[in-house]
Amino acid sequence: MDAKQTILLRTRIAFLGLFVFAVAVVAKLIHIQFVQGKKWTKLAQVATLEYRPIQPSRGNIYAQDGNLLATSLPFYKVAIDPCIADNELFESNIKLLSTLLAEFYQDKPAQAYYELLCEARRNRKRYLLLNNKQITHHDKRKMSEWPIFREGRFRGGVIFEKTEKRFKPFRELAARTLGFVNKNGNGVGLECSFDQILRGVEGGAVYQKLTGGSWKMIQSSNTKKPINGYDLITTLDINLQDVAHTSLLKVLQQSQANYGAVVVMEVATGEIKAMVNLGSVAPGQYQEIYNYAAGSQGTTEPGSIFKLVSMLALLEESNLELTDTVDTGEGKYKFHNLTMSDVKRGGHGIITVQEAFEQSSNIGIAKLIDNTFSEKPQKFIDYIRQLGLDKPLGIQLQGEGIPFIKHPKHRAWTKVTLPWMSMGYEVKLAPLQLLTVYNAIANQGKMLKPILVKEIRYANRTIETYTSTVLNKKICSDQTLKKLQTMLEGVVERGTAKKFKHGFYKIAGKSGTSNKIKNGKYSDATYASFVGYFPADKPRYSCIVVIDDPQGTEYHYGGQVAAPVVKEIANKLSAKDLVSAPYIRPIHSTEWHTPLPKFRVAYKDDWQVTIQTLGINFPSPLNSDEWLQVIQQEEETIWKPYSNFSTSQVPRVVGMPLRDALFLLESRGLQVTLQGYTDGYVKAQSLTPGTQVKPGQTITLELN
Question: Does the UniProt entry include the keyword Transmembrane helix (predicted)?
Answer without folding.
Answer: yes
